Amino acid sequence: MSAGSNTAERTVRAVFLTAGTIENVQGAGVEADMAGTHRRGLRRAGPAAVAGRPPGSASAPRRRRPENGGDTGLMKLSRPVSWFLLAFGVWSWFIWITFVKNLWKDGSGLAFDDAGDPTTYFWVHLLLAVTSFLLGTAVGVIGFRGVRALRRERSRG
Fold first, then answer.
1. Is 33 exposed, middle or buried (0-12, 13-18, 19+ CB in 10 A)?
2. How far is it, in rounded angstroms, from Cα 149 to Cα 32?
3. φ, ψ of residue 118 in degrees (nearest 5)
4. Is the separation of the CB atoms in 133 and 96 below 8 Å?
5. Taking the model in full, what pTM does it have?
6. Residues 129, 134, 139: CA angle, nearest 5 degrees
7. 109-145 as b/e, with b when 16 or more CB fall inside 10 Å?
8. Rounded to 5 degrees, what angle do the CA atoms 144, 149, 155 make?
9. Per-residue pLDDT of the chain (157 residues; tens, 9 = 90+)
10. Of the four, 58, 73, 85, 145, which is 20 to 30 A from 50 by CA?
11. Measured distance CA(93)–CA(134) in Å, rounded
12. What angle separates helix 36-45 from helix 3-19, to the nearest 10 degrees?
């Protein structure tokens, strides 16, 4: 194992142990094994020992069941949050498409040089607009799905 990955593993363990989230990451029953002296041994033994497996046995992490106190259940958005996210997505489409249109028509010399070729300013702002447009679209889709789920729930009950 390289020194870099070993350092990264120690950093991740330190963050999880100080944040008190190792139980959420590793699954039920780990909190009982996390006494101070045991932690030092786990740092040397590796992730298999933390998960309660013999060193060298690699398997997928265990999934926690919500009925066992896990936090992996479905998330339900409230009506105002769903509408806000949907409105943000629509706003994003309007704002960033308008921005790109204005950028394309720029006559100030910032977006295009004298020969008509795009400048760095143009490419940076186009990348900014496309990224923001895509993120806004993702947020809007989450909002739309939340609104649709709430309407379905209301029509059932």
1. middle
2. 39
3. -65, 140
4. yes
5. 0.53
6. 125
7. eebbeeeeeeeebbeebbeebeeebeebeebbebbbe
8. 130
9. 455 556 555 555 555 555 545 445 555 444 444 445 445 555 555 555 555 555 555 556 555 555 555 566 677 889 999 999 999 999 999 999 999 999 999 888 899 998 989 999 999 999 999 999 999 999 999 999 999 999 988 888 7
10. 73
11. 9
12. 150
Burial class (CB in 10 A: 0-12, 13-18, 19+), 81: middle
Backbone CA torsion sign across 138, 15, 70, 60? positive
Q: Token digits for 80?
A: 């105002």
Question: Quick one: tokens of 136?
Answer: 């806004």
Where do the domains of the chain lie? 3-68, 79-156
